[in-house]
Design a protein that fits this description.
With 254 residues, the chain is α+β, with helices and mostly antiparallel strands. It has helices at residues 5-14, 19-31, 36-43, 47-60, 78-103, 107-120, 135-147, 159-163, 169-177, 190-197, 244-251; strands at 33-35, 63-66, 72-75, 129-132, 152-158, 181-187, 205-207, 214-217, 221-225, 238-242.
Length: 254
């Protein structure tokens, strides 16, 4: 089979296949329909392994076994495979989400919360700080901090970064109904701010000359983003600090 090593590598990563599965599927795609023996010859996969690999690909929806003898396999269109995998990811995520939601009503969850509470209470609040690696972890922590705000939330960010934080919109609306003050300052152009006002209608957005990103909760805690807003997700780190003295100095920027 003539396939560029780079293509094999990319297909392997995109579809979460091992190297044998990747080579066999590419070989089958190039033939359309073939026996295991034919696939073994053009894929450079040992014949003894090709049968198992084809069966595995069939179960995953990459191939269809043709009725009759000799046994042949038909390649499934990549577009169909992608849609099927997308549906599987959505369904798996939904099931996992529901499973995690059910944990909150269990005794196990109660015990976990007690362990955390007992572990946190004896700690000096000035010691409660840490680094979060990756944008998804930073945003998850920001969501948790903002959700439990009781007095005010102050967010200083860039236009591009706020556009990624639409997950905060329903939380902000809920906080405003509870009387929590929400203030957002943005480093960006007038056009960018005007566009963002459509998504954050209930909150006043103010322009800021400060090119920084941090979120202050109740004047006590801050989540400070350490990198420019255009950095890739993996390297977008943040620092969480629980110190009223430190946070008070940042409050002056507002």
């Amino acid at each position: 089979m003539i396939a560029k090593p780079e293509l094999i590598k990319q297909i392997k990563n995109h579809f979460k296949l091992n190297i044998y599965e990747t080579n066999v599927w590419l070989a089958l795609l190039s033939k359309g329909i073939a026996t295991a023996g034919e696939i073994a010859e053009i894929s450079n996969v040992p014949r003894s392994r090709t049968y198992d690999v084809l069966e595995g690909l069939e179960k995953q929806g990459f191939a269809i076994m043709k009725l009759g003898k000799p046994v042949k396999y038909i390649a499934v269109s990549p577009s169909v495979v992608i849609e099927r995998l997308k549906n599987n990811v959505v369904n798996d995520a939904k099931e996992r989400s529901e499973e995690l939601a059910r944990i909150k009503g269990t005794e196990d969850y109660t015990q976990l919360m007690l362990l955390h509470k007992n572990g946190i209470e004896p700690i000096d609040p000035f010691e409660v700080s840490g680094m979060l690696r990756g944008r998804s972890n930073s945003y998850a922590h920001m969501k948790e901090l903002v959700s439990r705000a009781s007095k005010e939330v102050k967010l200083l960010t860039t236009a591009s970064a706020l556009a990624r934080k639409k997950f905060l919109k329903p939380i902000f609306e809920s906080l405003k109904k509870k009387g929590v003050c929400v203030k957002i300052a943005i480093n960006g152009s007038d056009e960018e701010i005007k566009a963002l006002e459509k998504d954050f209608k209930s909150i006043e957005l103010r322009k800021s000359a400060i090119n920084s990103r941090f979120c202050i909760i109740d004047g006590k805690e801050v989540l400070f983003m350490m990198n420019p807003s255009n950095i890739d997700e993996e390297n977008d780190h943040s620092v969480w600090i629980n110190s009223q003295f430190f946070v008070s100095s940042l409050n002056n920027l507002f």
